[in-house]
Amino acid sequence: MKVLIYNEGFHDSEPAVKAIYPNGIHGRIAEMFTEDGHEVVIATVETVEEVFTEELVKSADLICWWGHVKHHLVPDAVAERVQNAVLGGCGFIALHSAHLSKPFKRLMGTACTLRWRDDDRERIWVTAPSHPIAQGIPESFELESEEMYGEYFDIPTPDEIVFMGWFAGGELFRSGCTFTRGLGKIFYFQPGHETFPSLNNEYVTRIIKNAGAWACKKAPADTPICIHASESPESLRK
Ligand code: ZN
User: Are 175 and 163 in contact (CB under 8 A)?
Assistant: First the structure.
């Protein structure tokens, strides 16, 4: 599959982040897909406009998004391209603070805000053990440090809640949620703060790989055309 990876790339030169992700957050995510033989294209906030062209985004099977403080610098045209690609069947994985990214907010249609607190110990519980994204994951696993994201998480009711996060401070969070928009499958996953090694965790890695396989484009290139519509399905999705 063709995987587009966006990481805004703002934190990656900070020593604390570099120590954990020497090739950047995008480098770590890219590894997860290249080691399984998938084609990967990477963009940062500096390059996203020129790299994520209409043609490239249209041809993607999966888009994986990590952003934090530079969401506003992603051009609306790029966010619209990504949204349209997902409606046309491309998979979308929003990681950690991508809950406030332009593409994710467009796809959800809600504010996507949440409760926040600094780092704490997190236990992630599987709440949909038969879901393809949960395969190979034990009933729960622990992350020694993660950023606390808590409820209320302002998202539409997910299709499925595959994982729930519990924090030592007592908070709960819908940490792994699936959605369907148009022909596209979406997975939001909460771990992945830049100063913690969550993306190196074997179960987090497995979950992202599983999510890629589950979400990637499976729809035929030609989507059904409604005979009553005067416009093409593509323009109707805009
Ligand atoms: Zn964070």
Answer: yes
Average pLDDT over residues 73-87: 98
Cα of 68 vs centre of ligand 1, distance in Å, is 7
Spacing, Cα 183 to ligand 1 middle (Å): 30
How deeply is 22 buried, as exposed, middle or buried, from its count of CB atoms within 10 A (0-12, 13-18, 19+)? exposed
Give the Cα separation of 74 and 199 in Å (integer).
23
Rg of the Cα atoms in the chain: 17
Query: Which residues 6+ apart lie within 8 Å of 57 measured at CB?
Result: 4, 63, 78, 81, 82, 84, 85, 90
Whole-number Å distance, alpha carbon 182 to ligand 1 midpoint, is 29
What pTM was estimated for this model as a whole? 0.94
Give the Å distance between the CA of 191 and the centre of ligand 1. 8
Cα–Cα dist 26/12, whole Å: 9
- Encode pLDDT of 26-67 as tens digits: 999 999 999 999 999 999 999 999 999 999 999 999 999 999
Which of 86, 37, 26, 81 has the alpha carbon at shortest distance from 61?
86
The amino acid sitting at 23 is N
Instruction: Give mean pLDDT, residues 192-210.
Output: 98
- Region 95-99: what's the mean pLDDT? 98
> Which domains occur in the chain, in start order?
2-108+174-223 (3.40.50.880)
Q: Which residues surround ligand 1, an ion (CB under 5 A)?
A: 97, 147, 193
Pairing label, strands 2-7, 62-66: parallel
